[in-house]
Specification:
The chain is of the alpha+beta class. The protein is built from 13 helices and 18 strands. The chain binds adenosine-5'-triphosphate and magnesium ion.
Length: about 375
């Protein structure tokens, strides 16, 4: 089977690594340059979307910010999974919110803003404090504003108006500020036959809007809530592949923050911590193969490597540390790789994380410092 991934970043790379043992061949389509590239070496192996589609048995995506004309061509080929509708929902907060409402899945109160008048109405309806997010193109906390005081509305509006004007179909989604206790996410897969499997929930720590630490947790009640919300969203889209739901946990009640119609950063821990990793399960699903077990096999955390391109050898030497580099050029704050840390039980995992906190640079790994 030949799988074409739209997007040539680390997620396509890790799909390629996971697909090899199953004889699944992965190529990646760089949406910007229109080159077909090898997901590991980045070597150009062809050019043009039509050629890429022609060579593929199945087409999927590693990110949601894909031009709709590209998605429409893929849709017409009849080879695209999970579904172009799901990718469009993941890339546009307006569609995403409407989808959650239609699936009757709890999410933060919201309003869509196109004009200053809409903004004033949103302040009344949603209330202050409020989180404002661009409908299109947001990721890693970019394209967001916080309105904490009505006096700041003019200043924030000036910036939002500029953002709306810069892209033709852009708008802002205003959300109530959710006073969450913690953030968790659920990664799972739905097969062609409608079969749903989910991994254990992960608890996520973000630093400056970017995920820094993810740990698989064991909470039967929360897991049950998350799974039923996951199933409602996946079924409503007739989804095929791996899907991630990000949640706010407010005193044991989950609210969906956003959905990601793809393999997800908060599921990278499954490479060492689960029977079958999320990358393999995504490929299994889109190729029509049986889904693999999502069972937790050991206590695992994932630490993102942001803006760094080297690690002390001590890390590689440490028992339970698994380093995954993405082969990317160094840039401040860029996701360069991750470390999966495993242990036989959770106390041992905490000790290993604390040890790492003494080895790694304080500024580069802030979430770890809180644990030391
Ligand atoms: P991602 O990289 O996950 O795609 P993103 O840029 O799409 O991020 P969100 O996940 O919507 O943005 O928001 C980033 C972070 O901001 C969240 O993880 C959460 O910590 C905080 N946040 C977002 N929305 C709210 C809200 N309504 N109330 C409180 N905090 C929020
Ligand atoms: Mg998010």
């Amino acid at each position: 089977m030949h799988v074409l991934v739209l997007g040539a970043g680390q997620l396509a790379r890790m799909m390629s690594l996971a697909g090899a043992p199953l004889n699944l061949e992965i190529s990646a389509f760089d949406v910007g340059s229109k080159n077909i590239v090898h997901p590991l070496t980045q070597a150009v192996i062809g050019h043009g979307l039509e050629n890429a589609i022609e060579q593929a048995d199945v087409i999927t995506a590693e990110f949601e910010h894909i031009p709709h004309d590209v998605l429409d061509v893929c849709e017409k080929s009849g080879k695209f999974l999970p579904s172009t509708e799901a990718i469009k929902a993941g890339g546009d907060r307006r569609i995403e919110k409407a989808l959650l409402d239609a699936a009757k899945v709890k999410n933060a109160k919201y309003a869509v803003i196109n004009t200053r008048e809409d903004f004033d109405k949103a302040i009344e309806y949603v209330g202050i404090p409020m989180v404002l997010k661009s409908a299109l193109g947001g990721y890693d906390g970019k394209g967001q504003w916080r309105l904490k005081n009505a006096n700041d509305a003019d200043t924030i509006w000036a910036e939002m108006a500029e953002c709306i004007a810069a892209t033709e179909t852009q708008a802002i989604v205003a959300e109530e500020f959710v006073p969450f206790n913690r953030e968790v996410s659920l990664v799972g897969a739905r097969g062609k036959d409608g079969d749903v499997v989910v991994y254990p929930l992960a608890e996520n720590i973000h630093t400056n809007g970017v995920l820094s630490l993810s740990t698989a947790i064991d909470d039967a009640e929360l897991q049950e809530q998350a799974k039923s919300m996951f199933t409602a969203v996946a079924n409503s889209l007739d989804y095929v592949g791996v899907l991630a739901l990000e949640f706010f946990d407010v005193d044991g009640q989950l609210l969906v923050n956003e959905i990601a119609p793809r393999v997800h950063n908060s599921g990278h821990w499954t490479q060492q911590g689960a029977e079958t990793c999320q990358f393999e399960n995504h490929l299994r699903a889109v190729c029509g193969l049986p889904l693999g077990s999502t069972k937790l096999i050991r206590a695992t955390s994932m630490i993102n490597i942001l803006g760094e391109d080297s690690l002390p050898n001590e890390v590689l030497a440490m028992e339970g540390c698994h380093v995954h580099w993405y082969g990317k050029e160094k840039r401040a704050g860029r996701k360069m790789g991750h470390i999966n840390v495993t242990a036989d039980y959770s106390g041992e995992l905490q000790r290993r994380l604390a040890k790492l906190a003494t080895i790694l640079d304080k500024d580069a790994y802030p979430a770890l410092q809180e644990l030391s």
